[in-house]
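Give me structure tokens for this 258-residue protein.
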Amino acid sequence: MPVRRYRRESNEISCCLKYFIFSFNVVFWMTGLVVLAIGIWAWTEKDMFSNISKLTFIALDPAFVLIVIGTITFIIGFTGSVGALRENTCMLYMYAIFLLLIVCGEMILGGILFVLKDKGWIKDQATEGLRAFIIHYREDPDQQNLIDWIQEDWLQCCGIEGPKDWDSNNYFNCSSVTIGSREACGVPFSCCKRRPHEIIKNKQCGYDVRKEGSQTDRYIYERGCLRAGEDWLDNNMFSVTFFFLLLTITKVKVLISK
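Here you go.
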């Protein structure tokens, strides 16, 4: 009697691949949910949902960026994990499309940055972003914390081109001394150089440092954040390129495995 052989359906997902995609995307999904929750909480704390019109330069608002990233991550993780667990080809196709769009977006963005890096467009955008941070420094605590981190911890810089750029802020403008601003002709504490053996940083270290006769080179960073950012990118170009290349290859492999 002939033995009847059953051929495996071509659209059936292997067990190993199924649980690999599921496990990977559950982590992705939960991460997106946490990031989204933090962004919504930050906006709620600032009461931005009822005061959207007060937002300036929304693309640079840290809470808004967290909401966007969290939403995208949540959707991708959800479609990937549920699609793999339920072996739902429709959701897996959606997952693959999302990954394909991200890969294409990364390639397009990389091409644009490569073409425009010497034409001043990127520099102009960075300048506008930093200027918005400086002008609204005391108005948005999220933007304030972000530029403090950039100046103090990441790039160790001050202002756009230098400390004088803080004159664009009403509190740090030298003319504000007439209205009693103690911060007039000063800079934020994040511009100050950390002293040897200093455990707790003096939050008033930036007071009066831009006044005539003040020896600013002893207390604050003279290098602007724009130049510091360019130097950091030049020094870490290989690492940044390798990271995005590895990320892109991983996504392509996941797409091929489908």
